[in-house]
Amino acid sequence: MAANQAILDATIRHAVFLERLKAGEVKKFAPFLKEIDRSLRERLTKSDLTGFTRKRLEKLLDEVDSVLLGIFIRFTDQLTLDLIDLANYEAQFEATSLTRAVPVGVSFEAAIPSVTAIRSAVMSNPLSIRDGGKLLKPFIKDWTTAERERVTGAIRQGFFEGQTNFQILQNIRGTKAAGFKDGLLAVTDRNASTVVRTAIQHVASQARMETAKANNDIVTEIQLVATLDSKTSQVCRTLDKRRFPVDSGPRPPFHPNCRTTFVLLTRLSEMFSKGATRASKGADGAGQVSADLDYYHWLKQQPASFQDKAIGKARGALFRNGGLSVKRFSELQLDRNFEPLTLAEMKALEPLAFERAGI
Known about the structure:
By secondary structure, the chain is mainly alpha-helical. It is built from 15 helices and five strands.
């Protein structure tokens, strides 16, 4: 059990490390955002746009777009290098964890996938975010394209509406009174955070899966692990504790900013599962609960007010008063393709439960 606890502690520390790494990587966008802000101010304060011809405006927009493209390329190049480094680290970490999971006296050392295999998985396997099966590079590139178009579009729209340079800049930068949180660049900043966090989750998952495949003689399955708090999505709540084969099934991230991860189950997993716990944050604050609890069985232990906050009032009423087992309620949340079901779709499947719950 001492060895088991050490493995669990290492896993928890690593999960915290990954979240901190996400936050640190997000912060790296700040100087690039300042450069975008400075470049736009320089170009939009040189001369009054109201005196521009359409041809001159389009020339300015081309210049702005070119500058933004250069800034975004430098940021995404840096991000890509960091992601590849992270992928190699994640594979190494997972292999080390597998090696340490073997009882004392048993000779075993987990295989580490090649750098080529890891990079191929990261770049060639699509993100599982229900976004058309995008690969990592197009996922990042589409974000930069959208941000450039948003800025140049705001300048063009402002010109045709007769706005002054100051008004256009204010739309883009935001107002000082709101801490510059109400402009387009604030949207760019938030979107950057989402893209970076989602990309990191994808990279970590793919690297760890390559380690699982390289050790499929002892790794039997993977088990999804969602975060036990009120912010977890419908998809992640329902997939919590679900097991899938190493070579098939859904993998996180399941949506932008997804926090769900997974653990590799080995032939020794049952031995090491006794007494295991997992973190949660319920109505009474942070704590530890049995690792055997999935999301909805954990939610069953929370007060009605917390349940409503986590899954919504209608689903909360159905959860408590619909006469459904936890298992059946969970089954009603997603379709066969792991897409969330609406309340109307759920009602079509279980009309009596909705009637009992008064919905």
